[in-house]
Amino acid sequence: MISVVVPVHDEERTVALLFDELQAALEPLHEPWEAVFVDDGSTDGSFAALTRLHNAKDNVRVVRLRRNFGKAAALAAGFAQAQGDVVVTIDADLQDDPAEIPRLLAKLDEGFDLVSGWKAHRRDPLSRRALSRIFNWVTGRVSGLRLHDMNCGLKAYRAEVVKELRLYGELHRFIPVLAHYRGHRVAELPVNHRPREHGRSRYGVERYLRGFLDLLTVSFIGRYRHRPLHLFGGLGLGLGTIGFAILVYLTILKIGGHAIGEAAPHPRRVARRRRAPVLLTRADQRADHEPARGAHRAARASRARRRRDPLLAALVAIQTRRPLGSDGCAAGPRLRGAAAPARRESHTLGTLAFHRRARFLDTLAAGRRPGAPEPGNRKGACSRRPSWRPPGHCLRGCPPQRAR
After folding, report:
1. In a shared domain, residues 217 and 296
2. How does pLDDT run across 355-381, given as a tens digit for each residue?
3. In CA terms, which of 116, 211, 213, 398 is 20 to 30 Å from 30?
4. Domain that holds residue 42
């Protein structure tokens, strides 16, 4: 007896036409046959059309699922209801030609347990054909079963093959692979493929993405079902080896004196790091001979003086080539190139020029002419003598004077 399992989903206009073609293809074989239609949660009048067909024909059986569970669940339900020694599956969209069933049965009699159709001249868009070729190639490389068309809906099985299959999810695409893993002989036969005339395809590109994940499931079931530690233990051993190699490398770096996680400085960058010259005020000079606490106190006093005197802070910024901060002190990185002011004094005479400018700016700020005697000084005394120099010395070479 031949059982033809047909999964149906929203195919109201094609079920009656499909039965007529099945009858025309199987009647000449003079063997009893039946058609098992599985309604996979159709939302149109497919179930009503199947009910009318069941009432009119004695060899029609109808199975209805509560909702749309997918093609794998529909095939599993049809296999459970099939009573024949040979089971044939075919889609209800009329793209598979029922006239190819006798050829599949003849191939099955040659000693094979499963014969899968191969849509050699597929009547589908180019995008679907290209993705299907990639999918079949990857599946063949991973599973070891080289077929041109894994997912052809037209197949012929022996009854013992379908009784051993446990289909769920979307494993219907890998029925030949599952049978191959169980030791059954699988063959392939080119079949006729027709363009779609009714309805539309309900599968998109995402089914191929899910198919690759299902391929991992099938490979695990077929190869590592009874020895799972060979898979997970191998993965763990490989990752552990990589981690140990990294640990050895970092240990060698640490022993060699290199900092872990920090790149070694470039020699040119190290050579360019130069320290800016430090300009000392009177408080800073006195702090050289004081203890550490006095040095810190003098430094704080010097910074406070610079905050109170903006002209002095400007001179410090000129000497150090740094911009002024919000508090009036020199802040920020040293200016280089065109942004840096020209230095008119060498590093040796920097301190002397600094105090000369400070004295000059103090004179201008007080409203006096440079060179005029200071108020309160005796007549004839040099007004250019800074307060920080010892008495009797002048920056411009004035003769020493005796103090009264």
Report:
1. no
2. 666 676 677 666 666 666 655 555 444
3. 116
4. 2-226
